[in-house]
Amino acid sequence: MIAELGHFALILALLTALVQGSLPMIGAARGDAAWMALARPAAVLQLVLVALAFAALTYLYVVSDFTVINVAENSHSAKPMLYKVTGVWGNHEGSMLLWILILALFGSMVALFGANLPPSLRARVLGVQAWIGIGFLLFTLLTSNPFLRVFPAPADGRDLNPLLQDPGLAFHPPMLYAGYVGFSMAFSFAIAALIEGKLDAAWARWVRPWTLLAWVFLTGGIALGSWWAYYELGWGGWWFWDPVENVSFMPWLLGTALLHSAIVVEKRDALKVWTVLLAILTFSLSLIGTFIVRSGLLTSVHAFATDPERGLFILILLLITIGGSLLLFALRAPVLKPGGLFAPISREGGMVINNLFLAAACATVLLGTLYPLFLEAVDGSKVSVGPPFFNATFVPLMVPLIFFMALGPLMPWKRADLAGVFARLKLAALGALAAAGLTLYLREGWPVLPAAAMGLAAWLFVASLVEWGGRIKLFRAPLSDSWRRARSLPRAAHGMTLAHAGMAIAVAGMIGASVWNLEEVRNLRPGESMQVAGYDYRFDGVEQIEGPNYLADRARFTVTREGRPVAVLTPEKRLYPVQNMPTTEAAIHTTGVSDLYAVIGDSDGRGGWTVRIFHEPLVPWIWLGCLVMVLGGLVSLSDRRLRIGAPKRAKARPDAAQEPIPA
Amino acid sequence: MSLTRKRRRLYIVLAALLVFGGATALVLTALDENLDHFRSPKDLIAEPPAPERGIRLGGLVEEGSVERSADGLTVNFRVTDLTESVSVTYVGILPDLFREGQGVITLGNMRADGTFAAREVLAKHDENYMPREVVDALKASGNWRHGEELSQ
After folding, report:
1. Where are the domains of chain A?
2. Contact, A502 vs A627, CB < 8 A?
3. Among A94, A372, A480, A586, which one is least packed by beta carbons within 10 Å?
4. Cβ–Cβ of A397/B5 closer than 8 Å?
């Protein structure tokens, strides 16, 4: 009954989306206010219906209704309640439903909070949102219906893949999806502007918060996924350049570019055509991210089982969305009037550099990800593109980007004086030299490249703080005066400083992780010890334990350094009997500057166990940096100028960010 | 006015050419050196690759072939496409889903003595899932049994 209700609600949502995608669009073309006004209640109704369907599926999971195929295949009565709920989106059908729910949520947010959007723009934005919704609802209903029944019903379910039974991964898909779907707002606004033939600073002011919100979610989602891979897979790595990682990273790269170019549109009315193109491409990559791994086109470690019928549907959907929007772009982009002029060396110029490097980096990742497909289509040979390729292409592009990232915020709009900018960066140069020197001092063997890289991270970090310090006249005015300035500084300025500094922290972590990571594999008997990076790991033995739905061998290591106790690590090797699937649970102790990471392997049957110890310097900084970036995004979002409902009020307010920056 | 606009566009185009040209150069050199080629055991025996060539060897772990050496770390096993098989040596912890009779992909190099030195062994997260490349290799060797547990 509940399943049929959910199915029915989903069909009604499709019908609502059809109305929302057609009548308001026609109304906008004809200038008919009543038809345009239809978009808002339709968007809200669509949310209610999709939420109903989602709630129905969640209910089916909670009560373990195994007459529904989806529940029987992905759940089990003995599973902890948290994973019953998160299991809703731990499978293909459920994750599609989640996608649609988030899409409807964003659409209704425009409907509810977009009161001061021009009616025709609002109608068109909601119309485009509805088109996307139609595509996904059709896809779900026709090829991936989560509400189908099975007869006879099995006695119990087949359980969720144990690797996914983890709090980190439970919330990774919703965040990632919120990021992907969030970029649909920028896309809808871009398409609406192309149809409208009008794009101005106000447009950018509406697009920015949505892009920022999507970026925050995507950053968080990627970081969470990478963290999960780090502690759950037991390989000691945090990024593998696997296709599924790459497809989430590409929209992040372009989305970051979009975030910056939208600022130029808002402040200077320039780069409009490019920004519209970026919005289209970013969402296209998000669609590819949702689909490409799932369609089975690319072999990936975490593909869901595939189905050729779905693959074809997906391909058609991608073709219509991406091809159609690019065609519209080609036809209508010339209508958009070119905007403000700027000198090459200026804030705008800096943003162009940022955009170029991010777009080029995204292109190399795209190429590396799709190259095996091309090659197989051309001559049938099967190759894979591994991390060495990405390290050799992506990293060299990031080096100049990070270097220029320090300069950008210090340059004023329109025209900048490069000598003045560098003069303000003396402190940053000093910081870079100090970090490089420290690296050379601490590490043996004269590591020139890693030292230079750490210097670069410090350069960005100090430069971000210098810019912020300059704005509030830190140490140039009395502290109380600086405090007052800091409080009156727009939140977006604080946000930018946080985001840039967070990037510097994450970069330092990535350098540490890839250069100084130590791995030691041994066969140990209980009582024996091994030494890794100055820490002694004593293997105390292995005991059998029983979890709620698994059995485990739990090893115990006592870690000491020069005789002083540091930590007790208890890595596990679990067996989930329902799927007869073993998993590895790494044990990690963090000191703040490095992680001690232990994994237990197989017993050799003669009393010894394979033991793998990693020493991971600076790795915790990767996620610390991501957290700071997310925080920066949130602080920036709280800026009243970016508040979704308040762009008008902000217009009347004197804009502190446009004051010339004191040299 | 129009000159400035043109000039600005010129600067942007030049910068774009520089960045994208650089990226293209990086990609071209990296693609040449950093590809791992997929081979089935049959391919490897018919046409042994140069030792420095990165190879992804895929197939099934031959039943009864997994042996651990006395040091407890080195593992020897044979990867088969049910026609030919290749002996593989790996040092370290095998993935959780590594089992005899299961699909596996190993990354490494062919040694001069005809054995394969793996530096990485991959087994899929999901036990119902068979690497697509392994399915194709089994089909090519005529040993694909459709509809058995091997199918997805």
Report:
1. 1-160, 425-514+623-658, 518-617
2. yes
3. A480
4. no
State how far residue A610 is from chain B, nearest Cα, in angstroms. 7
Whether the per-residue pLDDT at B149 is higher than 60: the answer is no
What CATH number should be reported for the domain holding residue B121? 2.40.50.140
Beta carbons of A206 and A647 less than 8 angstroms apart: yes
Nearest-angstrom CA–CA distance, A320 and A168: 35
Same domain? For B49 and B74 the reply is yes
Give per-residue pLDDT as tens, A472-505.
Answer: 888 888 888 888 888 888 888 999 999 999 999 9
Residues B128, B86 share a domain: yes
Task: Say if B117 falls within a structural domain.
Answer: yes
On whether residue B10 sits in a domain, the answer given is yes
Is the residue at B148 inside a domain? no
Residue contact B8–A342, C-beta within 8 A: yes
User: Are B51 and B21 part of one and the same domain?
Assistant: no
Which helix (H) or strand (E) is A267 found in, with range? helix A243-268
Residue A444, class by beta-carbon neighbours within 10 Å (0-12 exposed, 13-18 middle, 19+ buried)? Answer: exposed
Q: Do B17 and B84 lie in a common domain? A: no
Q: Which residue of B has its CA nearest to A346?
A: B8
Task: Between A251 and A312, name the one with better pLDDT.
Answer: A251
Could you tell me which CATH class the domain A1-160 is placed in? mainly alpha
Chain A residues with beta carbon closer than 8 angstroms to that of B97: 581-582
pTM of the model: 0.89
Q: Are A639 and A492 in contact (CB under 8 A)?
A: yes
Band of pLDDT at residue A307, cut at 50, 70 and 90: low
Chain A interface, mutation test: which of B4, B5, B10, B93, most A Cβ atoms within 10 Å?
B93
Domain count, chain B: 2
Question: Which of B37, B96, B124 has the CB atom closest to A383's CB atom?
Answer: B37
Tell me which of A299, A310, A600, A603 to substitute to probe the interface with B (most B C-beta atoms closer than 10 Å).
A299
Same domain? B10 vs B42: no
Sequence-separated (6 or more) residues with CB below 8 Å from residue A426: none
Burial of B64 (0-12, 13-18, 19+ CB in 10 A): exposed
Per-residue model confidence as pLDDT tens digits over A242-263:
888 888 999 999 999 999 999 9
Domain that holds residue B21: 1-34
Confirm whether B146 is domain-assigned.
no
B93 and A344 in contact by Cβ < 8 A?
Answer: no
Quick check: B91 and A521 CB within 8 A?
Answer: yes
